[in-house]
Structures are given as C-alpha cells and as structure tokens.
Amino acid sequence: MMKGNNHEPLRIGFYICHCGTNIASVVDVEKVAETVKTLPNVVVSRDYKYMCSDPGQDLIQKDIRDNKLNRVVVAACSPLLHEETFRKAIGRTNLNPYFFHMVNIREHNAWVHESREEATYKAIELSVGAIRRVSEHKSLERKKIDINQNVLILGGGIAGINAALTIADSGKKVYLVERDPSIGGHMAKFDKTFPTLDCAACILTPKMSAVKSHPNITLWTYSEMLDVDGFIGNYNVKIRRKPRYVNEELCTGCQECVDACVFKNPKFPDEFNLGLSKRKPIYLPFPQATPLVAVVDPENCLELKTGKCKKTCVEACGERNAIDFEQTEKIEEIEVGAILVATGFKTFDPARVPYYGYGVFPNVYTALEIERMINAAGPTNGEVLGRDGKKPRRIGIIHCVGSRDENTNRWCSRVCCLYSLKLAHLLKERTGADIYSFYIDMRTPGKSMEEFYNRIAEEGINLIRGRVADIYPENGENNGNGALVLQAEDTLISRVLKVPVDMVVLSTGLEPQTDAQEIRRKVNMSCSAEGFYLEKHPKLAPVSTFADGVFIAGCCQGPKDIPDTVSQSGAAAAEAMKLIDKGYVELEPNTAVVEEDFCSGCKSCIPLCPFNAISFEEERRKALINEALCKGCGTCTASCPSGSIRQNLFEDDQIFNEIDGILQDGLFERGLVTNGDNPYNIERNQSSERRCAESQSQ
Amino acid sequence: MITKPSELTGSEYIKEEGLTCQLDTGIDNIFDTEEGRKILSCIQCGTCVGTCPYGEHMEYPPRRIIRMLRGGMIDEIFTTDSLLKCVACYACMVKCPRGIRLSDVLLPIVKEQTLANLKQIPAELQSSLQNTLRYGNPMGESSRRRVNWIKSSPSPVPVMSEIKRPVDVLWFVECYTSYYSRGQDNSKALARLMNALGIDFAVLGNEEKCAGDCGQLTWESGLFETLTDYNMEIFRKYKFNRIITGDTHAFNAFRIRYPLYGFDYKVEHTTPFIARYLDQLKPKLKKKLDYTVTYHDACCLGRRAGFYEEGRELLKAIPGVNLVEMTHNRTNSICCGGGGGGMWLDTYFKEKGMERLSERRIKEAIATGADVLAVSCPYEIYRFEDALKTVDHDKPMIVRDVVELLAESLEETDDER
C-alpha cells in the first residue's frame, strides 16, 4: 500500500459531478467513476448530480468521517468557481483542505468536445492525473496578515466623494486625492441632471462641503499619486502635492487677491469653463470650489515668471498672509489598507471627426461647453449665445460623436442620448429655438429614463433618426458667419435632409483618462481593450480588480451616468470596508518558497518577479520571497538556475505525478497499474492509440 | 507633416488593409466573405446616404441597398438606375462607423448588375468602355499614337523597349496624360521634374494600355481582366524597381484590384513620390509663383489611400505660393464626379436633372478667392476647366496639376535655356 507524505496509508475519495447535464450530457460520468474506483488507494468513487450543492458537500464530509479519507479529488467545473467551496467543505472536517485537488472537466472538456467517447476518455485521463497528484499533497496553512485601517481614494468626482463619505462615516480614515485644485469633477460642471432635471450643483455641493469638514477625511487637492509600494492591506503610497502658492490653512477664499491682481482684466483661458471665459493668474476655480482656496497659475503669474511684480495680491491679502510664492512641491507618504480608484473619464475630442468642423466653424460646440454656457455661473451667466454674440434660432444636436464608430471609439458611451435630450430641453427652454436632434438609436435604459424621453419628445423637439454626415456653411463661404447646414439622411423616410442651424452641439462620448495607463501600472490593475479599468468579474465582482485590495468605481471602469456611478462607488466603498474591517487578510498558501540551503544568491529571480515580491537579504546572501506579495505565478520557480525555489501546490512531485497519471502508459511501465493492457475497459480509438505510441516513443 | 510611408507593394497593400473579398465575390456569396460579415453589422445610421454627393438622387442609396440585401429584395434595386449615380468617391466608405467597405466591394457589384439590367447603357459610357476594350484607351485614339507626346517634350523621356536595360522607375503614364493636350502638359512637367532630380525612369510607350480602374469601378470585370492580363504581361517583360503613375485611378487599380491577380510591384502615385524628394527639390524651386492656391484632394489618392498632406507640402515648398483650404477638404473633400464611370455620364446626369459635381466643387474653390486650383489627378484638369466655363466667377482661376506648378517654379537648366 502506497503511503502519503503524512505516513498514513492513502485513502482517496473521488467525486465526479454531472453539473446537471452540463457535464453528464457529454462525459459518461458513471464510467469515469467506475474506472477511477479500480485505481490503487481509491476508497470511494462516486458520481453526483450537483457536487457543489449542500448535499454534495455533505456527501464528501460524511465519506471523510466514515471512510477515514485523507485525500479528496473532485472532477467538476473550473476551480475558479468552486475550488474554494470544496476546500471549505473539507476544512469543516478534520482534514487539511489542501489534501484536495479539483479537475476541470466542464470548461476544459464537456463544453469544448463533441465526441462522448473521447471526452469520457479525457475525463478519465485527467482524473487519474489528479488521483496521482493528490497523493503528494501536503498539509498547508493560510497565513494571516494585519490590515491597515486607512483607505486611499483617487479622484474627487462624484464617485470619489460618495465613496469617501461612506467610508469616513463608518469611522475609517480616508485620504481623498484629487488632481485639480477643487473636487467636484465633471458633475460640478453640469447645469442640470437627467432625468429629474434637478440642479447638479444643488445636490453636489453639500457633499463637497461634507468632505471638506469631515474629521475622518484628509483632502488633498491639486495632488497626484506618485508611487505605490506594498501589498493588499499594507500599501505605502507617495502623493505629490503641487504648489498652489496659496496657503490652504490661511486662505479664506475672499478673492480680494484676484481683484487686486496686476492683470486688470482676466486674460487666460478658464479651465473650468473649458476656455469659454477668461481668468487671471490668481483665481478661484469656481464659486463653489472645495477647498475654497485661490490658486496661482505659475505659467502666467508675473511674480513667478519674472520675479518683478508689484505683488498687489499679497498686499490685498494683508494680515491673512496666505499667499506664499516660496511654496514648493511636497511629497506625502501614507500607509493604507485599500485603494479605491475613481479617476473618471475625459470627453472625446471632436476634432478627430474632421467633418463636424469643431475648431473650424465657430458655432460648433461640445455638449460640455453647452453645459457651462447654460449654467447660471457659467461664462455667459446662463445666456445661450453663439460666438458671433447672437442668440440661436435653430440648434442642431448630433449624437454619437466619438461613440459607436470604428474610426474613433467603438463603444456606446451610454449617457449621450439622455444628456442630449436634457440639453434639447434646456436649450429650448432658454432660447425658444427649434431643436433638431440627430440620433442613430435612442438609448434610454434605466429607471424613469424612457419616461424622460417621452416628456422631451412631447415638448416638440425634432428627433431625426440619422447620423449627420456633413456640416458646411449655408452661404458657401468659410468665414464663420451665417448658418451651418447639417446634412443627414432621415433614415425613417429615406430622404436626405439639409437643415440650416445657427448652433451645433456635438454630443461627445466618454473616453479613458489620458493617463489611465500610468495609474493602472502603478497599482497593478488590468484594463479592457478600450482602456477602461477591468473589473475582476463583469457580473459578480464588478468593483474589484485583479489587484487585491484595489477597487474601482465610476467612469474609470466604463461610461455610466450619475445614479450608476453613485451606486457603484457605494459598492466599492463596501468592498473596501469589508476588507479592512475584518482586520486581517488570509493569504493563499500556493506561494513560492526559497530553499535557502541551495540558493546561491545569484539574484536572477528578483527582476523576473512581476509582483516585486522577491528581495535580497544582503547579510545571508539569499533571496527572500514576501508571501503577501507572491501570487504563485511560478516564474521564479521555473527560472531558478539552482532549482532552489519551489512552490506550494505546484511541487515537482505533484506535477510529475499528475503528468504520469495523464500519460497513463507511464503508469503501466512503472507497474503501478497492473490489471491488464487496458485497465479502464475503454474502447480506444485510433487517435488515442496514436497518442500512446507517440508518448512511448518520446 | 508627412508621416505615412508612401511606397508599398501589392501584397503589402493587401496586408495593410486586409483582403475583403475575392475575385469571384458576387451578390450571391458576399455574406461568405469578411466584408459580408461587416455588412451584417450595419446599424442603418444613414451616414453613407448623407455624405453621398448624389445620395438625394438615388431611389436606393447605400443604406437601403444593405437593408434590401439582408431582406432578400436586392433584385428590386437592379430595376432602378440608383447605383449608376455612384461616382466611387469613397465618402461613404471612409465615414462608415462600422468600417463597411462599400465602394470597394458591395457598390461596384450592385453597379455591375444595374448596368446589366439597364434597358440602354448611356451612349457616352458605352462608347468609352468599348473604346477601352478595342484601343486600350477610352477616347478611342490609336494605340500607336500613345507615345507621340514624347516628341514634343522638352525633357527626354526614355521608352523601355528602346533603351533595353533595367530602370529604377517605370512610369505608367495612362490615357488622359498621353493623348489630351492638357494631360500632356502634366506629363511633360513630370518628365522635367524627374530629369531635374536625376531619377532613372522610363515609360512603356505604345505598349501601355489603360489600367482599367474605371472598368473596375463599374465592375466591368470582363473588360478589366482583359486589361489586367495585358498590362501584367508587359510588366513581366521588363526589369524595374517600382511603378509610378500620375493617374490616381491607375494607382487605385494597382493598389486594390491588381494584387488579386498577383501584381506585387512597389507602386506609388507621383504626388507622394515627388514629395519624397522634397529636400532635393526645394533648392531647385527658384522661380517665385505669386499665386493663392487651393488644393483639391483626389478621392483615390486622399480618402482611399490617405495621402492628404503630400500635395500640400509640395505646394508650400514653392516660393510665393499661398495655400488656402476649401470648406470641404481632406477626408471631407467633394468628388469631381469623374470616378466610377462618371467621367462619361455627364450627359446622362444632366438629363436626370443632377448638378455636375465638378461645378459644386469649383464653387467652393472660387469662394476661397484662390488664383489656382491645384489637383493631383488628370481627370480633374478637364472636369474643373470645363466647370469654370459654366460657373460664374469674377476673378480668373486656372487649374493646374501639382507637378505642373512645381515644374513652373523649377530653375531653368543650361539645356533648357
């Protein structure tokens, strides 16, 4: 009788799952169970309809007790789905949960094969491999690591704000880092929000001030994440705080400095109003800016550029003494247990669709520019005027600019149909103009959205189903005066329309931030093809990422509206709290281990590790693997020249045994399986004969 | 800024753009091709119809053709003349949000069937197609007179069959640039430029026949294949490193259809070809031309092949030239109306009450206030010079190929003096 490494006789239990008909319709599960039963050391071999169900798990637990099983193999679906289920079931008995191995006969077999005979044969091969492998399994323990109780949130838009308040209200400490001088993000720029048409600022600004005054939130605006080190539960993060040349503690936001600036008139493009208005070198980003602190733009400030300014701003600030031209960049180092990324999106640059004339014809605007123009605090105090200063009588809105287009971005940006309807309503309300809204498909999913569409349609907006193909001046001259003609096919009546308008609104799509990839690399996340951050599972782990302890929320994960963003940021906050509130994290034991006696200290493994988990102990000249960082990828194990790195659950004995089992002829040769040439009573067809012949000849 | 590599071989073009169809692709098997799968992804947005210069005159514009094809009602389209109005300008193709290559595959196939079902093919088109088959040129000139323009060229033009040695550049002159006087001006200008740049070149002379692009655009496959076989045979006779042609339609044929017949030479249009010599050429452009110039993007060179900046860079290199843009430029350029057989359908279009596209385009050129309309395709000289006769304009305007303007600015050599 063969003995396991705990010196007890091996007693293996084998279980094969029907998975309803998922597996059983292709694999003859009974035959597999019968065949495995004939193998040495297999004490129990059963098939069952749903192994993952409670009765299925009970079956295993009962067998472990009744038959004194010390090894378990389950042939079922992917270990990604249920390895944890079975390990837990086994862990509830006296058996160590790592005396278990799972065989994937669904994704790797039943779902991809058609021949029942071949699929059954493959299932047997894989199962025999697992039976042989599990013999070499060892008892392993999960390690616990303490978790830092602070959370870092990147991005101070509505997603970051909502997550910060949720986590801070639960009593945890939050660092909220925002790149711009104020939090608020895109939402702060909107006038009203669909479908309720409530004022964006009215619902956002209370949350912004709550962030500012919350005792558990450290708010760093005008700051960026420089660098991340560490691992789940214990991240060390460096934050760069750019100089704003105004002391945040001392500034009261009174703006007297702005009035006093030597530049009498605003001269520089105002970022918040997308360049539609001008600001001075010292400015407040917008009236509700949080923190309410002035910023100096070093590119244009006379003092910072030349050192020869009268500094009337300093004079105006007086005793408050908040202006500080000596301020320099500051690096803060913090420790956090979880990172929540809510870095948002950028709007598509419509100059990439040259035939829409953005930047060429003065009265072609982006939707976001129109949001600012409609806003009472915007560049025109809410009045809608073209660049020629005239009030438009006819306005065209073009949907899907930079969305659903192979030449630019392929995805639907999800919010444009609804914000276009909103803008149609607001523009009509403000100007009384005729609105022509050109759409491809009107997409209004979500609660109350279709009703909103219905309401706007009833207001008499001209909704035209057709994508605008050309824009040109009505009078034929390219001088920016006069109407622009929107040319499109009304596809529902199959007629080419040439609609003259005074103003064009381009409903631009949503894109990943320009530096999305940099952030992704810093925190070791993944990205989907279009550049948005990738969730761990699209349905079941939508706010987790492949980097443990890093969560995502809002448009950095993909385009979405405010309700969805807020829901998602709440979910991400809950996930982050779930992690840190537990206080510790259990680590999978499938990590690599250095056998120090054999390690020559060549350091070749160190640069190869994708997770920076290996360091070098100078004194003993040995490689050291940080178990918390090791993901068990096997790179170091495979590359170590002296073979001194091994990996739990992927030991050489285990892998070679599994291979031997799969290539069962190896079993015959070693005499471990002896009952005849064909111990499994399987009809082998030609291809499997050939396969055996090939493996023998090697 | 010119960033695009301009010289590729036939197989490199296929590699760059992917082979969307086979020689035997037709209306019955189109859904078996990669292009067919793209057609299935059509979202019926109508961009193709909105941008089509004659979209409003088609009973069945491209979007509806796709819908009818999907619905098994395609035969109904062949009973109308809709697709005869397609001038193969590639506007629908370049703007299609699903990347459907309408002008490359589906539209020519539909056009072929439309022609086959037409009670009477428009006379002008019929005679030019017949001429091309019989004489190797659409105007019905004698093939033995193709080389005659060389005699009046001030710069030497070697002919392959006479020099009996390999050359670097084989210049495929094409029909309009061989037979018509304004086309010959273009050829002579190019000959002068190439001599000035010391380029080792030769022409095929009377052995050359029309490349057949317009035959291909009307999917007159029989005619097109006759010409392809013939020209491929001639190419095999000689040794050369690359082919250049000043005719954007020949360039188009060599890039898109000839590779399906095994054509694998490096091929380039003269505008990007000369633009590659810009550094060498610039010091030789001594004569100041005080013109305001506007540049018309030829469909086959611009939209189809992506060469928008080369012509402009060449014009900007000429001292004194002030380059201005028309409202529709680059991707959004308006076709001169000569492609896809349109060159020989002016009378037919007029009968149908359709505006000549060359007139629509020349109005934009006039609106810029330019003295010169610069072009890169030999069709355009005729079409725009013609249009200038019928469209009112206060200020005189001339039409010139880019190479003609370059040659005009070129310093005179001792021989020429």
Summarize the helices and strands and which ones pair or pack.
The complex is a heterodimer of chains A (698) and B (417).
Chain A: E1 12-17, H1 29-37, E2 42-48, H2 54-66, E3 71-76, H3 79-91, E4 100-104, H4 106-110, H5 116-134, E5 143-146, E6 150-154, H6 158-169, E7 173-177, E8 192-193, E9 198-199, H7 200-213, E10 217-220, E11 223-231, E12 234-241, H8 256-260, E13 268-269, E14 278-279, E15 282-283, E16 295-296, H9 302-306, H10 312-317, E17 330-336, E18 338-341, E19 345-347, E20 364-366, H11 367-374, E21 394-401, H12 416-431, E22 434-439, H13 449-458, E23 462-465, E24 470-473, E25 484-490, E26 495-501, E27 503-508, E28 510-512, H14 516-523, E29 550-552, H15 562-582, E30 584-587, E31 592-594, H16 605-608, E32 614-617, E33 622-625, H17 635-639, E34 645-647, H18 652-662, H19 665-669, H20 686-697
Parallel strand pairs in A: 1-2, 1-3, 3-4, 6-7, 6-18, 7-10, 18-29, 20-27, 21-22, 21-27, 22-23
Antiparallel strand pairs in A: 5-30, 8-9, 11-12, 12-17, 13-14, 15-16, 19-28, 24-25, 25-26, 31-34, 32-33
Helix pairs in contact in A: 1-5, 5-18, 6-7, 6-15, 11-12, 12-13
Chain B: E1 8-9, H1 10-17, H2 34-40, H3 47-51, H4 62-70, H5 75-78, H6 91-95, H7 106-117, H8 123-135, H9 160-163, E2 167-172, H10 176-179, H11 181-196, E3 201-203, H12 213-217, H13 221-237, E4 240-245, H14 248-257, E5 266-269, H15 270-275, H16 278-281, E6 292-295, H17 309-317, E7 322-324, H18 346-351, H19 357-367, E8 372-375, H20 378-390, E9 398-401, H21 402-409
Parallel strand pairs in B: 2-3, 2-4, 4-5, 6-7, 6-8, 8-9
Antiparallel strand pairs in B: 1-5
